[in-house]
Design a protein that fits this description.
The protein is mainly alpha-helical. It is 68% helix and 0% strand. The protein is built from 18 helices and no strands. α9 packs antiparallel against α12 and α12 crosses α14. It starts with 14 loop residues before the first helix and ends in a 9-residue tail after the last helix.
Length: 351
């Protein structure tokens, strides 16, 4: 008798017979339930359990969520005035004023598209964006690589503090500093006149205004922008650098094949966000210098909305211009994020 034979009282199918004939035993409901519970436990439990577990974090973030809802999402409802001839003096209550303002459809948008000053502002905005993208965006990356290469911690900390400091200056102070250096009565112009040369005033030259604005942005915010890149560099394992050095990679090769690939996801994310912010190139900075160079060189979309809409109390016109800017910016974010996906990066959100 074979050792695998069964007695009359034993189960008819054993594990060996299951493997032999290729059939699968039926799964009991209790087994399925236990597997389901195990799967839920591996994913953090049920929604109620996760809610109970994370209630402290939810309570901490609740005020921030409420602030975002009140100041960012609720005002979106006010964009309805872009399709009206809004009159704020109908009532002291803004909601009642909106309800009693006459509807004009797309008349405000038609006014905007027929205004040549609007297209001039769009052109200036795009030129400034391209300049800042080409000249400003790479500088924080280069500074982060430079600081990361410094070995002495004290030198690194001092250099970071010096680079961060201008970020905390107001635009009024930043423009004042540039005025004292590059203005007609600035240090450089006075020094040239003292030595018999003709002075200059870069602060009132419309031809170089866009480069001047970019230089101001670099001096003010480049140091602050390296924080994200330094954080990404801190996550790179030193073993990768040691392995590359053992393989004979030079310092340049290690930076190209180890450092830059570590920064690539962060660069892609910030680039997508920067493209989405293309139509916002600095309202306060440009408004403070607009009168010095004239609207032909300094008028951008934000200042155009201010002067032609808010300042003249044509709120429907301003809302329509702002709505156009928001829709175009959203489209730019989605397009840039799609390009990031095609390049194999995550971007703002996953596929």
């Amino acid at each position: 008798m074979s050792s695998h034979s069964t007695t009359p009282g034993a189960p008819a199918r054993t594990a060996a017979s299951v493997v032999t004939d290729g059939t699968e035993p039926s799964v009991a409901p209790a087994t399925r339930a236990s597997k389901s519970k195990a799967a839920k436990a591996s994913k953090g439990g049920t929604f109620r359990n996760r809610l109970r577990r994370d209630r402290a974090l939810i309570l901490m973030t609740l005020p921030a969520v409420l602030l975002v809802l009140v100041f960012n999402y609720v005002p979106i409802l006010g964009n309805v005035v872009a399709f009206q001839e809004y009159d704020p003096y109908v009532s002291d209550n803004g909601v009642i004023s909106i309800l009693h303002s006459p509807w004009v459809g797309f008349e405000q948008f038609q006014r905007i598209f027929e205004d040549s000053a609007f297209w001039d502002a769009v052109q200036n905005t795009l030129v400034l964006f391209i300049l800042q993208l080409v000249l400003f965006f790479p500088i924080p990356i280069l500074l982060a690589l430079l600081i990361n290469s410094v070995i002495r911690p004290r030198v690194r900390a001092v250099s970071q503090a010096i680079l961060y400091l201008p970020h905390f200056f107001s635009w009024v102070l930043v423009i004042t500093v540039f005025q004292q250096i590059f203005g007609g009565a600035g240090i450089i112009a006075q020094t040239l006149r003292q030595h018999g040369y003709e002075g200059f005033d870069l602060m009132t030259d419309p031809g170089i205004f866009k480069f001047l604005v970019t230089a101001e942005g670099v001096w003010k915010d480049a140091g602050w922008g390296i924080i994200v890149f330094l954080a990404a560099l801190a996550s790179v394992s030193p073993d990768l650098y040691e392995a590359a050095a053992m393989d004979g990679a030079s310092r340049w090769r290690r930076m190209w094949h180890v450092t830059l690939p570590a920064l690539r996801p962060v660069i892609a994310l910030l680039l997508v966000l920067r493209v989405g912010d293309a139509l916002t190139v600095g309202f306060e900075q440009i408004l403070l210098q607009r009168d010095a160079v004239g609207p032909g060189a300094a008028e951008v979309l934000d200042t155009y909305v201010w002067w032609n809409g808010v300042r003249n109390q044509d709120f429907s016109y301003a809302a329509a211009a702002g709505l156009i800017k928001g829709v175009v910016s959203l489209g730019l974010v989605l397009a840039a994020n799609k390009v990031a996906h095609l390049m194999g990066e995550q971007g703002v959100y996953k596929k």
